[in-house]
Q: What sequence folds into this?
């Protein structure tokens, strides 16, 4: 009986963690005018946080003039329902011509769902 109980707990933990143990979506790009963003999104699991995704990358001003009020918005979208699970905005302020800046943000997901990340400048 004790072995069955331990086996059931292990199966339950594997099912909970199965959706987000370490999925890497590779590099993606977003652009608006002279603004460019390159980012990678990786899903992971941590005991205290549960399932979450981390987006890391950089924004770049490909023009020669500074751009004011630069903000990059991320949406964590459920691929099955096409609904937004979580959103984050990163404020960069003014970005000079030719300047790049790095960023990192986390998005909260559920372990049993599959997601994609969409990014856009506002």
A:
């Amino acid at each position: 009986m004790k072995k069955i109980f331990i086996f059931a707990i292990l199966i339950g933990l594997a099912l909970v963690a199965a959706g987000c143990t370490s999925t890497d979506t590779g590099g993606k790009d977003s652009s608006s005018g002279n603004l460019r963003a390159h980012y990678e999104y990786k899903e992971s699991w941590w005991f205290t946080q549960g399932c979450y995704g981390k987006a890391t990358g950089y924004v770049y001003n490909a023009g020669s003039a500074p751009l004011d009020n630069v903000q990059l918005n991320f949406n964590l979208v459920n691929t099955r329902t096409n609904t937004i699970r979580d959103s984050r905005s990163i404020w960069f302020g003014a970005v000079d011509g030719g300047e790049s800046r790095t960023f990192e943000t986390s998005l909260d997901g559920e372990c049993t769902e599959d997601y994609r990340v969409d990014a856009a400048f506002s």
The radius of gyration is 18 Å. Residues 17-22 have pLDDT under 50 and may be disordered.
